[in-house]
Amino acid sequence: MFSRLTALVGGGSALPFELGEEFPAASSFCGWQHFRGTSKADSAPVSVFRIAAPKGDARLDAARNGAKRLRTMRHPNVLVFKELVEQEERNEVVIYIMTEAVTPLVEVLRGMGSTDRQQYLCMGLGSIVSALAFLSNDCSLIHGAVCMAAVVVTQSLDWKLHGFDLMSEHQFASQYDLPLTAASWLLPQQYKAGEVAKSDWQAVKDGPAWGVDAWGLGCLMQEVYSGTPLARTEDLRSTERVPKDLLQFYQRLLASQPARRLNPKQLLEAGVLRNRLAEATSFLENLSIKETMEKDAFFKKLPSLLPSVPTLVAQRKLLPMLANAIEFGGAPPVALTTLLEIGKTLPEEDYSKQVVPILTKLFASSDRGIRRGLLENIATYGPALPDKVVEEQIYNHVASGFTDGNPYLRELTLKSMAVLGPKLSQRTLSQSLLKHLAKLQVDEEASIRANTTVLLGNLAGNLAEATCKKVLLNAFTRALRDGFPPARVAGLKAIVATAKYHSAEDAALRVLPAVAPLCVDAVHEVRASALDCVQHFAAQLAQHHKELERKAAELLEGQAAGAAHDAAAGAPGSSSGGSLLNSFGWAVSNLGLGRSSAADVGGKPPAAAAAAAAAVAGLQAPVPGVAPTGRLPAAPAPRAAPAAAADASSNGWGDDGDFDDGAGLDAERQARQRLSKMGVGGSRAAAASRPAVSKPAAAATPPPANEGWGDDAGWADLDVPAPAAARPIRSAGGAAPTPRRPAAARTTSGGAAGSNLRRPAGSSGGAPARKAGTMMLGVSKLGDKADDFSEW
C-alpha cells in the first residue's frame, strides 16, 4: 500500500499540503514532528505529522501501524485522518500524515491559564475516557501509549485521541507480532504500566483489555491537573491537585494489578466527569432531536453558565455551536442573546469573521423573535458591521420594521437607525430613511414620535447640507406642536443641537416665533427647554448683529477714506464734518445723491449763505394765489435773482440746468424706484404714475443748512396718491419748494444757522416743534399732530 502511495506522489514532488510552523518538540508524540499546514485542495488549515527514519528502522513500522489504525478508526473523540504520503528524502523514508487542524494539549492548557478551567478539564477528560472505553470494550484494542502527548485539541477545543503507533489486539496470537512488544521502547518509562515495564506480555493478555490503558489514563489525569508533563513515575503519588470527587477513581486507575484497575466505561457511567459545560455541549450537539420545550428551558439557563466557563472555551467551543444552531433553525431566538454576549469577548477581527456573517444571514429571517433579538442588541455588534454590508444586505430587511404592526418592533427599528444610519449612503438616507421618519413622526405611539425627533437630530451630521436646511426645521417645528411633552422637549433640544444648520434669518423668522409660545408651556421641562432655546438663538442673533456692524464699519471706513482722498484732490479747502448726510450715507447713495457734498450745504461761504438765506426767506413768505388747502397753484414760480442762481450753482444743490431736458425727473423716478424696492416709500405704481410737469424758469435756491431733513415734504408724498394738479419739480438735492401753511398754523425755520427746530413765522410760540431729520424710512418719527402726515 505504501509503495503504491509513493509511486503516486512521484517521489515527493507534489505534496497535497503546504507545511507551516512546527510545534515544540516537547509536545510531540513518539518522535513525530507536528506542523501547522494548509491543504492545497481547499486552502483549509490542517495539521501535518512527519516522521523520518532510515530504511528498516523499527520506528517506520510503528509509524505505519499508527497510520493504518488512524485511517480505519472512526469515533467522535479520535483524530480525523485526511491524507497519507510516504516518500524518500535524502536517503531516508519520510511518512506524512495530514489530519484536521489540531494543537497539542499542553500548548492549549498553557495558553488558557489556571483559572476557571475546572469544568473544561473534566469535559476534555470525558472525551478521552469515551474514546478509550470504545477501544477496549467495543474493539478489544489496546492503545498502549495514553499520555498528554497522545491528546490534541481541535479549533473548537474538542479533545481528540491519536498516537496509535503501539495499538495492538488484546488477544494477540503471538507476542512477536504485537506492535506493543516491538516498539514499547518508544514510550517513556514513566508512562508504562507495571506489566509492560516488565515485558510480561502474558499478564497483558490475561488481564482486562483496558488494563494497560487504565494506567495511562491515570497518568493523563495527573498531567492535566498539574499542567505539566509527567517527569517520573513517583509523581503519580501526588494527589494535591486532583479534585476530591475524582480522587478514588484516580487511585483505582493506578492499581498495581491489571485486574483491579478501573474500567474507563465505569468512570464514564459514574458521572463524575459530567458538569454543566459538558451537558451544555452535549445538548447542543444533539439539538436536532430535542423537544421545543427542552430547547426553550435550556437556552434560558445558558447565560448563567458563561461566568464559570473560560473565555477561550466560550469563544471557540460554545460560539460556533450556537451559531450553527441559530443559523439552521434549531435554536429559539433567545439563543441570540448568549451568542452576542460571547461575541463581546472576541477581538474585532475575529468578531468580523465569526459573528458578523451569521448576523447578516439572520436579518433575512422572517421570525419576529429573531428580529427582536437582533434589534435589541444592535448596539453590541452594529459598529462592527461593514458599511457595504449594511447598505446592500441589512437595511432593506430592517426597514420592513418601520411599517410593522407591532409598536415595539417599530420603535426598535427606529432606534437601530442610530447605529445603522451613519453607515448608509446619502441616496438611501434621503430617498428612503427620511420618508420613513416623516411617517413615524405622526405615529399613533407618542414615544415613537418623540424618538423620531431625537433620531433625526442625531443623524443631522450625516445628512447633506441642503437636506438639513430643507428637512430639519420643518420636522422640529412640527414636534413643537406635539401634544406629548417629551416630544416637544425633543424638538426644542434638537433645534439647539442642530443650530449650526440654521441661519440668522431662520432663527429670527422661524425658530423664535415657533419656540416663544412654549416659554409659557404648562410643563416645566418644556418651559425650561424653550427658554434655553430662546437664549441660545438670541445670543446667535446678537453675534450676527455684531458681525453686520463690523462689516458696516469696514465699509464706512473705506468710504471715508475714498471721500478724504477725493476732497484732498479736488476741494482742498472744503469741510466734511458735521452734516446729517454723513450719518445717512447709505440712504444718500441709494437716492443717487452721493455726488453732493455735505460741505456744499453746511459749509457755504458767508456771501453764498446770505444769498441762500434771502432766497429761502422769499420762499417762506406767503405766496399769492395759494389755495385754501395749502397746495401750490399750477402756474410756474417766478425766476430768482441771478446772484441767487449763481450761489445755487456753486454748491451743487441749486443747479437746475440738468432738469431742463428731463434728466432730473428721470433721476427722481429712479430714486423712487430704489426706495420702493427697499420697502420704505409708496408703491412702484404710485411713483411711476406721477405726471411730468414743466420746470420753472429759474432754479429754486436750496434751503439753508439749518432746515436740513426736517421738512417731511420730500418723503411723505411717496405714500399718498398723486395730486390731480401738476406739482413743481424738486431741485437736484431733493428739497423741492413746498406749499406752506398759513403763518399762524405751520412751523418755519428760525434761530441760528444749524438749528433743527422750526418756529411759527413772526412768533416764538405756537404749535410744538417738529424734530429735524425725520424721514419716511420705517425708522423715522412722525410729528406730534395726527394730521401732519395726511396733510401731505
UniProtKB/TrEMBL annotation:
Superkingdom in the source lineage: Eukaryota
Biased composition (Low complexity): 633-648, 683-700, 712-750
InterPro entries per the UniProt record, alphabetical: ARM-like, ARM-type_fold, CIK-Related_Protein, Kinase-like_dom_sf, Prot_kinase_dom, Ser-Thr/Tyr_kinase_cat_dom
Protein kinase domain sequence ranges: 3-284
Pfam family, one: PK_Tyr_Ser-Thr
Region of interest called Disordered, as start-end residue ranges on this chain: 633-792
Molecular functions (GO terms): ATP binding; protein kinase activity
Biased composition (Basic and acidic residues): 782-792
Protein name according to UniProt: Protein kinase domain-containing protein
